[in-house]
Automatic annotation (TrEMBL):
PANTHER family: SERINE PROTEASE FAMILY S1C HTRA-RELATED, SERINE PROTEASE HTRA2, MITOCHONDRIAL. GO terms for biological process: proteolysis. The chain crosses the membrane at residues 146-167. One of its GO terms (molecular function) is serine-type endopeptidase activity. The keyword Transmembrane applies. This is PDZ domain-containing protein. Belongs to the peptidase S1C family.
Length: 532
C-alpha cells in the first residue's frame, strides 16, 4: 500500500476538506446529518476487508465529469461496521437546488495534492460583494456631505435674512412712525346727575314716603360714631377699646345709644358724619334694658325723627344705619321680618320688645337706627340681640319700648321705680346651668330640688344683714317657688316695690344630701346705678 493510501486511510474516504473550510454536513433541506465514520476497523489491521468506495467506482471522476457549479455528485457510503449495522449515507448535497442558497462551490482538496480547487470561483464571487459595499459606502458619505452642506447653507440664508430684517427696520422705522401719526386720544363718556339730584324732596312721593336713598340721606347726619376708652390714659393716647353708634335726639346734644356700648367708669367721644369730634359724658345708663343716654356740648346737631314702632308692618321696607367695623355711616337695607318679638339681652337676660329684620346688623351697629321709608326711627339696633349662628336675623329694640327709658334717663339719670335686691345669682333654667351649680357645690343636687343659687351678696344691701349666705339657695318668695331669674323678678315686681320688705324661704345644702330650710326677710332698695 502506498503512502497516499495510508494518508487517507482507505479509498472510501471522502475528498479531503481542510478543517477551516469544513461546514456541518447538511441535507438539501438544511438538516444536520452525523458524518460517516472516516475509516473502518479493518484498515488498522483487524483483518476485515473494506469495500471500495464509490469514489473510485464512479465512471467519471473529477477529471472526466464536467463541473456543474456545486456538489451535485452522488455520495454513497455503504459499509458494514463491526457491530453488524448497515450505515448508508446516500443523501444528495446540493447548493443549486430550487430552495438552495445558490452559493459558489467551496474549494475541495484533491486526494493527490494539498492545493485546493475552486478558490478562483470563491474570489470571483466575493469581488462583486466588496465592490458593492465600497460603492454603497461612497454613496452614503456623499449623502452625508450633501446634508451638511445643505444645513450650512440654510443657516447662512437664515442669518442673512435676520440681519437684513434688522437693518431694514432701523432704516424704515422713522417713516413707519410718521405714517402712524400721533397717538389718538381715548374718548370716555361721563355725565353728571341733573341738578337737584340730592334734594331729599325728589326722593319722596306725594304721601311723604321716601326711597331708600332718600331715607338714608335724611337720617345719616343724625347718626354719630361713639368711641369708648377704658381710662384717661387710653383717652389721651386715643386708643379706644371699642366703637358703637348713637342717635342724635335733639339739637342740645343728647344722644341715645346702647348701654353695652359705654363703659360706666370710662371716657367717651363722638364723631359726626361731617368729621367733627366732641367729648361726651354719660347722662344715664340702664343695663337692664340696654339703653343709655350721653350728652355733648355742641350746637346745631341734626336730630332724628322718632316714629311709632306699633305701626310697623311685616314686609315693610327698612334701612339700618350705623358704624359696623368702624365704618362710618354705613347703610344696609331689608324689611321688617316680624314684630313684637320678645328677645332677651345677652348681657342682662332681660326681655325686651323687638322688631326682627333681615337688614345686616353687625358689631358697631349697636346704638344705631332702624328707619322706615318715611325717615322715622322705629328701633334702636343692637348686636347683643343678633343671632351669631344664623344669617339675616337681626333685632332692634322698638322705639316705643325704649322711649320711656330714654325719658327717665334724661330726667333722673336712672329709671325710677327700679328695685335692687343686692345679690348675684345662677338659676336652674337648664341642665347646663344646673351642672355649673353642681360643679361649684362639689356634689349633685337632690331630685326635684328647685331654687336660685346665690353666688355673691352686696354688703351694702339690706339682704346682707339676713341669715342668707353665699352658696345657699332662695327657694320661695312669699310662698311661691322660684327657680329662674324671670320667676324671681316677676314674683317680686308683681307684689312689691322699692322700700318694701320681702319674705323668702332659703335652703342650705350639705354634701351627702342633707338639706336645711330657713326663713329670711329683706328690704328692697331703689336702684339708681343702672347696673342691673
Amino acid at each position: 500500500m502506498d503512502d497516499r493510501y495510508n494518508f487517507y486511510g482507505n479509498d472510501s474516504q471522502q475528498p479531503y476538506v481542510p478543517q477551516h473550510e469544513k461546514p456541518a454536513t447538511e441535507t438539501s433541506c438544511g438538516s444536520t446529518q452525523t458524518p460517516p465514520p472516516q475509516q473502518g476497523y479493518g484498515s488498522q489491521g483487524y483483518g476485515q476487508q473494506q469495500p471500495r468506495s464509490s469514489y473510485e467506482q464512479q465512471q467519471n471522476g473529477y477529471s472526466d465529469r464536467p463541473y456543474n457549479g456545486g456538489y451535485n455528485q452522488q455520495n454513497s457510503y455503504s459499509r458494514q461496521n463491526n457491530y453488524g449495522q448497515q450505515n448508508s449515507y446516500g443523501s444528495q448535497n446540493s447548493y443549486n437546488q430550487p430552495n438552495g442558497y445558490d452559493q459558489p462551490r467551496r474549494p475541495v482538496y484533491d486526494r493527490f495534492m494539498y492545493e485546493p480547487i475552486g478558490f478562483e470561483e470563491l474570489e470571483r464571487a466575493k469581488a462583486p460583494l466588496a465592490d458593492q459595499e465600497l460603492s454603497s459606502g461612497k454613496k452614503r458619505r456623499k449623502s452625508e456631505t450633501a446634508a451638511v452642506k445643505l444645513f450650512a447653507a440654510l443657516l447662512i440664508v437664515a442669518g442673512g435674512l435676520s440681519i437684513f430684517g434688522i437693518v431694514h427696520d432701523i432704516v424704515t422705522s422713522k417713516s413707519i412712525v410718521e405714517k402712524i401719526g400721533p397717538q389718538q386720544q381715548v374718548v370716555l363718556y361721563k355725565e353728571s346727575k341733573p341738578k337737584g339730584y340730592d334734594d331729599t324732596e325728589k326722593y319722596k312721593d306725594e304721601n311723604g314716603k321716601y326711597t331708600p336713598e332718600g331715607a338714608a340721606a335724611l337720617v345719616r347726619p343724625s347718626i354719630v360714631k361713639i368711641y369708648t376708652y377704658s381710662d384717661y390714659s387710653a383717652y389721651s393716647a386715643k386708643r379706644p377699646m371699642g366703637t358703637g353708634s348713637g342717635i342724635v335726639l335733639n339739637e342740645d346734644g343728647y344722644i341715645a345709644t346702647n348701654a353695652h356700648v359705654l363703659e360706666a367708669e370710662g371716657y367717651h367721644r363722638i364723631e359726626t358724619m361731617d368729621g367733627d369730634f366732641y367729648d361726651a359724658k354719660i347722662v344715664g345708663r340702664d343695663a337692664k334694658t340696654d339703653i343709655a343716654v350721653i350728652k355733648v356740648n355742641a350746637k346745631g346737631l341734626k336730630p332724628a325723627i322718632l316714629g311709632d314702632s306699633d305701626e310697623a308692618v311685616v314686609g315693610e321696607q327698612v334701612i339700618a344705619i350705623g358704624n359696623p367695623a368702624n365704618l362710618s355711616s354705613t347703610v344696609t337695607d331689608g324689611i321688617v321680618s316680624a314684630v313684637n318679638r320678645k328677645i332677651k339681652s345677652d348681657s342682662s337676660g332681660f326681655e325686651m320688645d323687638c322688631l326682627q329684620t333681615n337688614a345686616e346688623i353687625s358689631p358697631g351697629n349697636s346704638g344705631g337706627a332702624l328707619v322706615n321709608m318715611y325717615g322715622q326711627v322705629i328701633g334702636i339696633t343692637s348686636s347683643k340681640y343678633v343671632s351669631n349662628d344664623l344669617e339675616g336675623l337681626g333685632f332692634a329694640i322698638t322705639i316705643n319700648e325704649a322711649y320711656p327709658v330714654i325719658e327717665q334717663l334724661v330726667k333722673n339719670g336712672f329709671v325710677a321705680g327700679r328695685f335692687r335686691i343686692g345679690i348675684q345669682l345662677r338659676d336652674m333654667a337648664s341642665d347646663a346651668k344646673i351642672a355649673v351649680i353642681e360643679e361649684k357645690l362639689g356634689f349633685e343636687l337632690p331630685d326635684d330640688f328647685k331654687g336660685v343659687y346665690i353666688e355673691k351678696i352686696d354688703q351694702d344691701a339690706d339682704i346682707a344683714k339676713s341669715e342668707l349666705k353665699e352658696g345657699d339657695f332662695i327657694t320661695e318668695i312669699n310662698g311661691k317657688t322660684v327657680s329662674t331669674y324671670d320667676e324671681l323678678y316677676d314674683t317680686i315686681s308683681s307684689q312689691f316695690q322699692a322700700g318694701d320688705t320681702v319674705p323668702a324661704t332659703c335652703a342650705h345644702l350639705e354634701k351627702g344630701g342633707k338639706l336645711r330650710y330657713y326663713q329670711i326677710k329683706f328690704k328692697l332698695m331703689e336702684d339708681t346705678s343702672g347696673n342691673y
